Amino acid sequence: MGRPSAGKSTLLNKICGEKISIIAPTPQTTRNKIRGILSEERGQLIFIDTPGFHLSEKKLNLHLKDVSISSLDESDLFVYVIDTTRTIGTEEKELLSIFSSMQEKTIVALNKCDIASSKVKTYSHTIKELLPGCTIVEISALKGTGIENLKDVLFSKAAEGEQMYPDDFYTDQLPEFRISEIIREKAINSVKEEIPHAVYVEVADLEISEDGEKGWIRAFIMVERETQKGIIVGKGGAGIRDIRKAAQKELNRIFPYKIYLDLRVKVNHKWRKKDHILKKLIF
Ligand SMILES: Nc1nc2c(ncn2[C@@H]2O[C@H](COP(=O)(O)OP(=O)(O)OP(=O)(O)O)[C@@H](O)[C@H]2O)c(=O)[nH]1
Ligand SMILES: [Mg+2]
Fold first, then answer.
1. CA of 83 to the centre of ligand 1 (A)
2. H helix intervals, the chain
3. What is the spatial distance between Cα 174 and Cα 152, in angstroms, rounded to a whole number?
4. Ligand nearest to the CA of 25
């Protein structure tokens, strides 16, 4: 858990060694609880990546906050990720207060130590004072620094239980969801400002050949306005072509069949205000 853009998804992927959760420089990238599974000789850890903890009265953000908070009930331990390049604001204060009531179960991961080495020390000092019962680790989710130490801490703190997933499982996401997320990642990384927030992806069709060697996907990048559609499509269609190419390349790396992706852009006016769409997308 942590504020938007703290590096939660980058961390999940680094720990599990696979691309499980999508990443973007814009905040509010993750919109669902995304499970990542790490299986080693010493045991299995199941992680839940969550949407960034963001205080806002907008409908979409309220849904995202609910998802983030509800993950607390499902977890035995908490990794609270802090972006040490930023100062403590209202959201961080609220998170600090949430975790202050469960310090024994909380590991504070001071992230981005690759670019904020001096600030990490100050943070470490502050957190020791505010949350003396927490374990603090310094990491760079991007570079992989401190990840082995974090894993050791988690394995030492985790309670013993039955193995929940087979050894070779690293996520439980359904193919349609995973496809839509990969397309969304490529789309939101190609645009700026408000547009990433206005994007969702709908997989209309996924057909796999009988021999299991080919997969055909028909998907739509959904935006809120015609102008946003124009920006995603780009000059002469160059934008959507690049998104399609990048998504297809990554999908081909992940799925065992050769993928053919048919990708278009459509408008769903003000979808972020529509309850039935939010219910479908955010869970
Ligand atoms: N330099 C540096 N950048 C990082 C690190 N971890 C994450 N980032 C960058 O921070 C940005 C946000 O990363 P995400 O992993 O998407 O952050 P998040 O916390 O999942 O964000 P939301 O899903 O929006 O809440 C991306 O541009 C990452 O490359 C790190 O350790 N060092
Ligand atoms: Mg994320």
1. 8
2. 8-16, 59-70, 90-100, 117-130, 147-157, 175-188, 226-233, 238-254, 275-281
3. 30
4. 1
3-class DSSP state for residue 166?
coil
Write down the mean pLDDT value for the chain. Answer: 97
Q: Which amino acid makes up residue 19?
A: K
Report d(CA 49, CA 223) in Å as an integer. 25
pLDDT at 155 over 90: yes
> Is residue 86's pLDDT more than 90?
yes
* Cβ–Cβ < 8 Å for 141, 150: no
Confidence of residue 27 (pLDDT cuts 50, 70, 90): very high
pLDDT in tens, 34-81: 999 999 999 999 999 999 999 999 999 999 999 999 999 999 999 999
| Closest approach atom of ligand 1 to CA 13 | 15
Cα atoms found within 13 Å of the Cα of residue 170, Cβ hemisphere only? 13
Q: Please state, in angstroms and rounded to a whole number, the distance separating the CA atoms of residues 26 and 95.
A: 20
| Rounded-to-integer distance, Cα 127 and Cα 133, Å | 10
Which of 103, 85, 78, 82 is CA-nearest to residue 93?
82
User: How far is the centre of ligand 1, averaged over its atoms, from the C-alpha of 23 (Å)?
Assistant: 7
pLDDT tens per residue across span 91-123: 999 999 999 999 999 999 999 999 988 899 999
Identity of the residue numbered 144: G
- Ligand 2 is a single-atom ion; what residues have CB below 5 A from it? 8-9, 29-30
Distance, in Å, from the CA atom of 188 to the CA atom of 199, rounded to the nearest integer, reads 7
CATH numbers and ranges of domains, the chain: 8-157 (3.40.50.300), 175-281 (3.30.300.20)
Contact 201, 223 (CB under 8 A): no
Q: Each residue of 253-279: pLDDT tens digit?
A: 999 999 999 999 999 999 999 999 999
